[in-house]
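Mods, move this if it's the wrong board.
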Amino acid sequence: MAKTKGLVIKEQTVGESDRLVTLLTADYGLVNAFVRGAKQLKNRLAASTSLFAYSEFSIYQGKDANVVDGAKPIEIFFDLRKDIERLAVAQYFAQLAFELANEGQPEEEMLSVILNSFHLLCKGEKAIIQIKSVVEFRLMSLSGYMPNILACANCGTYETDIMYFDTLEGCIYCENCQKIGAIACPKNVITAVRFICLTEPKKIYSFSLSEKNLELLSKISEQYVLSRIQKRLPTLEFYKSVKL
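Not the wrong board. Structure tokens:
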């Protein structure tokens, strides 16, 4: 039997009362496990194995699959359900983690990024689009998809007043080497991208941009994610449909 702390990022009802959950854990990355009778009202594991629950799990290897034997809730993130936009973006973050995390490999920082984003969403202390951009760029970087944002991909210039972010190639160009199709960005937006990707984890939200530039940052981070994952993300589509 293994014990680990994990966040439920996906759940699926199996049969009449069982639940199949996917956990994002620091120790083992993605873990799939069954929760017997979780849909029953009086089941002791119902709350601690629900979507977005961060719990300490006891898991054993059954004959055909992992089974949750016990779960002690640490944080349920109930406040996410009080606002449809925050709930929608949390679902999107969970899907991103599911797409990018590995099974059987530690994912400590990815788990930390998602947990911190949930705390910020619940507190309402940061703009949702800022949280979204940070999660997108940081998770892509952790998964081996960090964009080449150190200097112009053509001439090596570090910075000009306007830079161009190519979401398909994952690189930047200076104003003298601007490329068709790349998105024009003020230099402080590119500085923010560098900061998100390269700074230490506990400081990734320590930057500020105008509302207009936050929207631009969100645009390039989202397009970059889609260019790398190359599949439809229903949770992102839902978030955009309810975005205020």
